[in-house]
Write a structure and sequence with these properties.
- The protein is mainly β.
- It is about 10% helix and about 45% strand.
- The protein contains two helices and eleven strands, in the order E-E-E-H-E-E-E-E-H-E-E-E-E.
- The chain has helices spanning about 25-40, 90; strands at about 5, 5-10, 25, 45-55, 55-65, 75, 80-85, 95-100, 105-110, 115-120, 125.
- A five-stranded mixed β-sheet has the order 1-5-4-7-6. Strands 2-9-8-3 form a four-stranded mixed β-sheet.
- Strand 10 (about 115-120) and strand 11 form a beta hairpin.
Length: about 130
């Protein structure tokens, strides 16, 4: 999963989240991450980042990580360790990470209350104040 991307859904999360965690994981996301991490025993966490993509937005990236960077935010839920890159922390705050699978695709989906809009594919998004990046 080298620099994979994920789809973003504009709007509120589907359930209540912990006030202490910048990101919550659904049971489907936890199950899928456990499967992926078992295949990469040398890695300690899944790292979430953001990068510029397309003509007007950002996209999340997902990578296996062996070492936590100094400014990474750590989220631990049900035995799963997620490190959030410092550039992604403000944009992901309050989000819910899910894993959805159907006949045609399987993907991680972020339900993010902070985004202003998305492109047609759902991978590229922008915030109210993009000057943060």
């Amino acid at each position: 999963m080298s620099a994979a991307t994920a789809r973003v859904v504009k709007g509120a999360t589907t359930r209540l989240r912990s006030l202490r965690s910048p990101l919550t994981l659904t049971p489907n996301a936890i199950g899928r991450i456990k499967i992926l991490m078992e295949k990469q025993p040398e890695c300690k966490a899944l790292k979430i980042g953001v990068k510029q993509k397309g003509c007007s937005g950002l996209t999340y990236t997902l990578d296996y990580a062996k070492e936590k960077a100094k400014l990474d935010e750590e989220v631990v839920q049900d035995g799963i360790r997620i490190w959030i890159d410092n550039k992604a922390q403000l944009s992901i705050l309050g989000s819910e990470m899910d894993f959805i699978s159907d006949k045609l695709s399987s993907e991680f989906v972020f339900r993010n209350p902070n985004i202003k809009g998305t492109c047609g594919c759902g991978e590229i998004w922008h915030l109210q104040n993009e000057s943060t990046y």
